[in-house]
Amino acid sequence: MACGQDKEVCTPEALKKNRAKVLEFYNERRRNAQAAEPNTAHLALVELKEFYEVHIITQNVDDLHERAGKY
């Protein structure tokens, strides 16, 4: 469920109307983010870095690139 698709949990009005539902929605998203593991794309970047001078530029705020290998 993306915020653009569900006004029941992704608006200030929703927070006022049903705080518990909104908090659970975002808590679940946080749990999913914390449980995420590096995928094959992250690992491929690590492998590229072993052979070439590669600089990774990302807007991601997770640590999946770092967990895949040292940058």
TrEMBL record:
- UniProt domain Deacetylase sirtuin-type: residue ranges: 1-71
Q: From the Swiss-Prot or TrEMBL record, give the protein name.
A: protein acetyllysine N-acetyltransferase
Q: State the EC number(s).
A: 2.3.1.286
Q: Which UniProt keywords apply?
A: Hydrolase, NAD, Transferase
Q: Name one Pfam family in it.
A: SIR2
Q: What class of enzyme is it?
A: transferase
Q: Name one GO molecular function term.
A: hydrolase activity
Q: Which organism is it from?
A: Haemophilus influenzae
Asked if Hydrolase is a keyword of the record, the answer is yes
PROSITE patterns assigned: SIRTUIN (PS50305)
Q: Which domain of life is it from?
A: Bacteria
**What range does the record give for the signal peptide?**
none
